[in-house]
Amino acid sequence: MKQPILEALIGARAAKRRAALLTDIASGEQTLVLDDRVEGELALTEDLRAALDAARSADRNGIVTVGSRQVFVQVFNPPLRLIVVGAVHIAQSLVPMAGLAGYDVTVVDPRRAFATDERFPSVVVSQDWPDEALEGLRPDSRTAVVTLTHDPKLDDPALDAALRSEAFYIAA
Question: For the whole model, what pTM was predicted?
Answer without folding.
Answer: 0.77
